From TrEMBL:
Residues 15-194 form the Ketoreductase domain. This is SDR family oxidoreductase. It comes from the Bacteria. SMART domains: PKS_KR (SM00822). The keyword NAD applies.
């Protein structure tokens, strides 16, 4: 490897990245990382004003960015998201399925409505968004899909079974996508965060947060920015021989 090859490993210049749930928390941190690495970024989220604000923030970092309001469970909206991205930037190179629904109900007290709402965002949405973007990913020379899952997919998940099971399902889809799309040159991986200091985390009771932090070796919440390095590895040429795998970023809390 020469200097040019080394410098290109994490370089995302001239690549277009869609990040769902990209207006706050981990999603916004990832969007910032991609922009700073040279990518054109499309942030998608439910609220138009939040999308506009996030895109303006990313442009303030010196990048090209737009926001497209779409709900992660709205399959009909995915075609519009893909079309707007291609219209603005000419294609799609990377898709990051980050949007999530953290609904929590105990076994024995689940409702059909909660199950459906969680599944729509955590499983069905990511799978069908990949399908919508697939023709454009196939045209990219650097195509990658990153599915954000959770260490909950590996661990005991009392009261969080709907969420954990959805993330486990998305992890399974990650492996199947990797196998099916490899001949087309599309890599598909997952990133499994542990406890991260986000609004979603802060919606938990203090004792629940303390319990999750206590289960890590590092005994602290992660910053959303600490997910950026692993995401860039999986989506850039630095991870060119990685597909069908899950990278755990959890402060040392999930032995495997």
């Amino acid at each position: 490897m020469d200097r040019a090859g080394f410098d290109s490993l994490f370089d995302m210049s001239d690549r277009t990245v869609i990040v769902t749930g990209g207006t706050r928390g981990i999603g916004l941190a990832l969007a910032e990382g991609f922009v700073l690495a040279g990518a054109r970024v499309v942030v998608a989220s439910r609220k138009a004003d939040a999308c506009d604000a996030a895109a303006a923030h990313l442009r303030g970092l010196g990048g090209q960015a737009i926001g497209v309001p779409v709900h992660a469970g709205d399959i009909e909206g995915f075609d519009a998201l893909v079309a707007r991205t291609v219209e603005e930037f000419g294609g799609i190179d990377v898709l990051v399925n980050n949007a999530a629904n953290a609904l929590a109900q105990p076994l024995g007290g689940m409702t059909v409505e909660a199950w459906a709402k969680s599944n729509e965002v955590n499983v069905r949405g990511p799978v069908f968004l990949v399908q919508a973007a697939l023709p454009h990913l196939k045209q990219s020379k650097h195509a990658a899909v990153l599915n954000m899952v959770s260490v909950g997919a590996f661990n005991f998940a009392a009261t969080m079974s709907i969420y954990a099971a959805g993330k486990a399902a998305l992890m399974s889809f990650t492996r199947s996508m990797a196998a099916e799309f490899a001949p087309a040159g599309i890599r598909v991986n997952a990133l499994a965060p542990g406890p991260v200091d986000t609004d979603m985390m802060r919606n938990n009771p203090d004792e629940a947060i303390t319990h999750m932090v206590g289960g890590t070796l590092m005994k602290r919440l992660a910053s959303p920015d600490e997910m950026v390095g692993a995401a860039l590895l999986l989506c850039s040429d630095a991870g060119s021989y990685m597909t069908g795998t899950v990278v755990i970023v959890d402060g040392g809390g999930t032995p495997r």
